[in-house]
Amino acid sequence: MAANRIGKTEGAGGYESALHLTGLYPEWWEGCEFDEPVKFWAAGKTNETTRDIVQAKLFGEVTFDGGRKTVSGTGLIPGEHIGAITWKQGVQDLIDTVKVKHKTGGWSVLGLKSYQQGRGAFEGTEQDGIWLDEEPPIDIYGECLIRTATTDGLIYITFTPLDGMTPTAMAFLPGGKVPDAKGH
Length: 184
Description:
By secondary structure, this protein is α/β, with parallel strands linked by helices.
C-alpha cells in the first residue's frame, strides 16, 4: 500500500513480473528468484484497465505484423522474449495468455485476468506468482492465496487504499488492526 501516482504499477509490480517471467534478474536483485520458467497471472480491476495498464506496461501497444495481431514489445518485457499470444474473446485487444521466453530457454506463461470476471475465474490452477494491480476484493485475494499455496509462490499487490480500510487492506496491517498513534 502506498500513495497514488508514485510508480507502484510500473516500478514495482510490472518490473518484478518481467523479472520472474524472463529470469533476467539484475545483479543487485535481493528478492525471490525463479530459476526455471513460471506460471503467472497478472490482473486488474476491469478487462479494460488490465489491457490499458497491466498489459501495456508489460508488452507495449497492440500492433499488427503482416496482418497478425501482436504487441510492440516496447514494454518491460523485451520484444525478443515475447512468444505466442492468445487473445481474450469478447474484449478487444486484451491478451488471454502469452508465452514469455525464460533465460533457461523454456517458456513462462502469463495469464491476464480482471476482478470483474469474479472469483470463479481465479479458481483451479496452481500459479508460481500473481501480480494484482489495484486492490482486489477479499474473495479474489483469498482465491489467489490458494493458487500459490502448493507452489510456495508469491503474490504482490500494487494499490492505494482508496476505499479505506477494506478487508483486503486490513489483511496487510499488523494483527488486522490500524496502529494507534504510538504504532501499536
